[in-house]
Amino acid sequence: MGIYILKRIMSIIPVFLLATLLTTGMIQLSPVDPAEAYVAAAHIQPTDDILEQKRHEFGLDQPFFIQYVNSILKKCQFDFGISYVSNKPVWDEVTLRMPATIELALGSLLIAVVVSVPLGFLAGMKRNRAIDHISRFISFFGASIPTFWLGYMLVFFFSVQLDLFPVEGIGTWQHLVLPSLTLALPLIAMYTRLLRASVIENLQEPYVQYAKIRGLKNKSIMAKHVLKMAISPMITGLGMNLGKLLTGTIIVEVVFSWPGFGRYFIEAIFNRDIPVIQCYVFIAATFFILSSLIVDLIQMFIDPRISRKEGQYR
């Protein structure tokens, strides 16, 4: 088990190097000159001397390999450069906005898990009954409705008509309700269907029949055995969506004026703030890597056979 964990952690290093290569190569492949983008954002009259000076400051006059190595060293020190717009360190700007995105991501995941686990489990146990039909309707509705439209509808009914929750901003739990629900509904649709299908599949496995022959109660079989094995695909989905949510739920943050990481990234695109865009790409890759690692470790503790299979394959 320890060897498996070490191998999974070591596998992060090549992805880190590849993510750094991509963010460094963005400048080489982009038609936008970083020096021109900087002077435009700073409202400086561009001249050949100023542009040449800025290219030298940014290290763009060095060979690509030197730029790549310097980029790795800087990222290890959490140095992502200076924002062209605010003229402040990008990492300071990101750490200022990341807590809001984390709060929104965890809030939406909590709602999704609390609703989808009992709903999907009951739908799988009571196939083709009323609860199953209800879960199907919720799943189809949640999977088909556009996120931005759902956000505006929630604002219209619960903020404008009923005046129950704030329209925008951050600060209290009331501000968190509507954007979290907007993000949670598509997740509920996906996790409910995943768990339902997994429960139905596990109910047909031989270990369920063996447990019944041993005289175990049906509730004990469902709670201790079927749910434990059926929830595995849902955990994988949670890990993938956690990385997506932590990189900034851009549409929802824009709809609800949520001061998060995704909204900051959109503003950087419009302003051609290249250091912020590079930072976003790198952090997004890092979050997906870490989410995948966390999911693999959780899956390993739920089903220790995973680490043994890895050892056999290697």
TrEMBL record:
ABC transmembrane type-1 domain mapped to chain residues: 98-299
Alphabetic keyword roster: Cell membrane, Ion transport, Membrane, Nickel, Nickel transport, Transmembrane, Transmembrane helix, Transport
PANTHER family on file: DIPEPTIDE TRANSPORT SYSTEM PERMEASE PROTEIN DPPB-RELATED (PTHR43163:SF6)
Entry's localization field: Cell membrane
Protein family membership: Belongs to the binding-protein-dependent transport system permease family. OppBC subfamily.
Designated name of the protein: Nickel import system permease protein NikB
A UniProt-annotated Pfam family: BPD_transp_1
SUPFAM superfamilies found in the cross-reference section: MetI-like
Record Gene3D superfamilies: MetI-like (1.10.3720.10)
Membrane topology: Multi-pass membrane protein
Self-association and partners: The complex is composed of two ATP-binding proteins (NikD and NikE), two transmembrane proteins (NikB and NikC) and a solute-binding protein (NikA).
Ranges that cross the membrane: 104-125, 137-160, 172-191, 242-261, 281-302
Species per Swiss-Prot/TrEMBL record: Bacillus mojavensis
